[in-house]
Amino acid sequence: MKVEVKVIPNAKKRALNRDGAGITVRLTSQPLEGRANDELIRYLSDLLKVRKSGIKIVRGEKDRRKVVEIPMDEEEFNVVLESVDGKQ
User: Fold this and answer.
1) Closest of 3, 63, 4, 2 to residue 34, by C-alpha
2) Span 36-63, mean pLDDT?
3) d(Cα 88, Cα 82) in Å, to the nearest integer?
4) What is the model's pLDDT at position 50?
5) pLDDT confidence of 81, banded at 50, 70, 90?
6) Are the C-beta atoms of residues 69 and 55 closer than 8 Å to each other?
7) Which 3 state secondary structure label does DSSP give 25?
8) 25-60: string of b/e by CB count within 10 Å (b at 16+)?
9) What is the rounded CA–CA span in Å between residue 76 and residue 69?
10) With contact defined as beta carbons under 8 Å apart, do 27 and 8 qualify?
11) What's the pLDDT band for 87 if we cut at 50, 70, 90?
12) What CATH number has the domain bearing residue 81?
């Protein structure tokens, strides 16, 4: 499935929140030399329990608004997001 992601780099701590149809992800890395993109993929991989190689940035590699492809269906994704929202 493809998900719209708004990335906020250089945050004090990592966080993930729902944002309408997409998600907002706060990352601690700076947006230099692809560091924030790498952290985004690692963070989503850890949260969603999927392989890093399965997560791809489809659009917006150099933009704060990205489209990310994740190897899971929408129902599974929503269940995981609900559990993450409860922890934060």
Assistant:
1) 63
2) 95
3) 10
4) 94
5) confident
6) yes
7) strand
8) bbbebebeeeebbebbbebbbebbebeeeebebeeb
9) 14
10) yes
11) low
12) 3.30.1200.10
Q: What pLDDT is stored for residue 84 in this prediction?
A: 76
CA angle at residue 12 from 6 to 17, to 5 degrees? 35
Neighbours of 5 (CB within 10 A): 21
DSSP annotation of 46: H
The domain tally of the chain equals: 1
Does pTM surpass 0.85? yes
The single residue listed with the structure tokens 């991989």 is: 45
- Domain of residue 65, residue span: 2-87
Q: What is the pLDDT of residue 82?
A: 84
Are 54 and 70 in contact by the 8 Å Cβ rule? The answer is yes
